[in-house]
Amino acid sequence: MINRFLEKISGKWIFLIVVTTIYIFLLIFNFHSFERVLIQFFKLIWTILPIFVLVFCLMFLSNLFLDSKKIIKYTGKSAGLKGWIISIIAGILSSGPIYMWYPLLSELKDKGMKDAFITTFLYNRAVKIPLLPMIIYYFGITFTIILTFYMILFSVINGLIVHKFLNLKKP
Q1: CB of 51 within 8 A of CB of 96?
Q2: Contact assessment for residue 102 and residue 67, using Cβ atoms and an 8 Å cutoff
Q3: Neighbours of 104 (CB within 10 A)
Q4: Interval 75-97: pLDDT, tens
Q5: Is the Cβ–Cβ distance between 90 and 121 less than 8 Å?
């Protein structure tokens, strides 16, 4: 009976049930620990709330101004050099925590963006414009140019590799 119930619900719900059960036990048997955990949870929510709002605003604006045809044209299966350039520049210019970009990238993928461009975007987040002067100061201009060039080059190579592996799985 329990096995049939567990087969019908997804892993997300099982995880939620397990975590909720742990919190209930903590509430009953160790209220002080429960209180500390709850305070930390609300501090975390308060910290990431502005980032959530920003990402949801970006998603709203992307839905408002970007239609599927444009996204597919520039970052879809038939996209060429423009798609690579867009994903490289967007990755370099993006800021904030990486996990906040996942919902937007997932939405773009659903609209037709290639996995290779998503990989390239994520890889290029390592190139940070505000940090370039500090890298130049500590390591020199030559090192910085070569490092940045290789990071961009390998972002494209990694994008191609990810694309190739993901297409091996498809019949």
Answers
A1: yes
A2: no
A3: 15
A4: 766 678 888 888 898 888 887 77
A5: yes
